[in-house]
Amino acid sequence: MATLSDVARKAVVSKMTVSRVINHPEQVSAELRQLVYNSMKELNYVPNYAAQALVHNRTQVIKFLILEEMDTTEPYYMNLLAGIAIELDQRHYSLQLVTRSSHTIGRCDGLIVTGMRETDYDHIISHLEQPVILFGENKKGYDYVDVDNKKGMQMVTEHILNHGCQKILFYGIEIDEPFMRSRIEGYEETMKMKQLLPQINLMKNSSHIAQFEAEKVLQKNHERIAFVCASDRLGIGVVHAAQRLGLNIPGDVMVTGFDGVFLDRIAQPKLTTIRQPIVEMGKTCAKLLLDKIDQDGMKQGNRIYKPELIIRNTTTT
């Protein structure tokens, strides 16, 4: 069986270089990395990551802790999980999905946490002993990754205004969390800049509830109207309401969503939305966490991604 020393001799590099390629490939040039990989392949060398973990007193396990119910956000989290898994796999870590009731079972080297609510910071997050990266904006000083929620809602509201519609309702999720406050703020500021009255409606993140609420509004409405929604799920509900009442989209009713993960593409007509680069954001969560582990818990800061406006048939023909 080939050893690390054999790989080093064949590649004509030091054992330390081979070790760095295996454990920290991002620290090695692409040319040198490929040279070592080729030598490993020719010698059928497979690194013993379990032994390395024991030497460094690590588990090679990262937990992904979701603190909210997943039934209403599954497409979103599948993309996030994919991004996290891709980065962890490159660094030879395994991923364990846990919830608020199971996150203390078993050891790990660090956690990526999402779906936080205000009480979770004191009851759960502050008690975590391992390095943590949050997926989602927070004001508590924790390292996090998120999209610019305020900018995204400004972009989509301006898009509606540029199409001549001035009666714009905001349909948001009834939850007092930073991401929702930022989306509301983006909508409100854009409306007030045009001296228009913001109309904010909050509800559960459910297409059925959004449809019910929108039908009540549309039955009494006699002018062109738009709904900017804080999720694609809510946007789809509004689309169903307009279709049920025989209204033209986008002629009578304009609708937008937010997320751009999966639901926007299966809606008919396809939904104009703000797309978040969820897979890339997942990769960044994992990279920041692994760097934090390697740097003995050193603060990594925040990464804010730019939102992208995807224009489809619910706002243009």
Total of helices: 12
Shape: elongated
Which class of the largest domain in CATH terms? Alpha Beta
Question: SSE string, helix = H, strand = E?
Answer: HHHHEHEEHEEHEHEHEHEHEHEE
Mean pLDDT: 92
Determine the CATH topology of the largest domain: Rossmann fold
Low-confidence stretches: none
Sheet having the most strands: 6 strands, parallel
Q: What is the distance, rounded to the nearest whole angstrom, between the alpha carbons of the first and last residues?
A: 65 Å
CATH superfamily of the largest domain: Response regulator
Number of domains as seen in the coordinates: 3
Side by side, the strands of the main sheet go: 2-1-3-4-5-11
- What would you report as the Rg, rounded to the nearest angstrom? 24 Å
Q: Based on DSSP secondary structure assignment, what is the total number of beta strands?
A: 12
Under the CATH scheme, which architecture of the largest domain would be assigned? 3-Layer(aba) Sandwich
Derived from helix and strand composition plus strand pairing, the structural class reads: alpha/beta
| Proportion in helices | 40-55%
Organism: Sporolactobacillus mangiferae
Domain HTH lacI-type: 2-56
Pfam families: LacI (PF00356), Peripla_BP_3 (PF13377)
Keywords: DNA-binding, Transcription, Transcription regulation
